[in-house]
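Schema walk-through. Below, the input block comes first and the output block second. Nothing else is stored per chain. Lengths vary across the set, and this one has 239 residues.
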Amino acid sequence: MQSAHPSNILSTPRSWGDIPRGEVWRAALEQQLQPWWPKMYGYHLLKIGTLSAEINSEKCPISHQVNVGPQGEGLQVIADPYLLPFAEKSVDACLIAHTLAYAHDPHRILREVDRVLIDDGWLVMTNFNLLSLLGMGKLLPVVRRRQPFSGQMFTQMRLLDWLGLLNYEVMYHSRMQVLPWCGQGGKMLSTHLPALGCLGVMVARKRTLPLTPTAKKIGLRKPSLSRAVGATKSYRDVP
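--- output ---
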């Protein structure tokens, strides 16, 4: 398998603070995710990348939360996100906060996450919305090499299509921060025109049976769970 392209690794922010207004966006994403963390149970929560590691997930009852990435602070496991050092179907939930935005091959990241997630496991994903003011900025040669415009941006329909192909059921999706430079992201616009939000959130579950059941699939048994390999128990300090 090929590794991530070097230029993409260099352009990956080491923290939300490396992105203009990144701390404000992180807080907005955390607010969206707060109602969902208590719904997740199990043994292991995997947070891939330094941006994921900084997302506050203390409300999640999964105590073994492992930060994984190729480099950066706050990581317990240093590993290639394309070759995660965990057994197949060993992780109960996975967070990829803007991980696809800085991935050379986002499809491969999703396939690797799918490999380690248990059946009915949770996938939490955040991203930049292409159909937004940030997306328009990518059309300007002067700014498209700067953060956050240098990151890849996807439409919601494209992400939904990718998850559908992997047989994930999307439980929740939302977009916010229509005006990314404003403190509350343009609260009124975000309420009435959420489709133009610069940030996107998706919460999905991996399903063993097809979302449209067929006679062939219904008879399959649910495989038993396996434990993660190479992870160490740790807790992220929350300021």
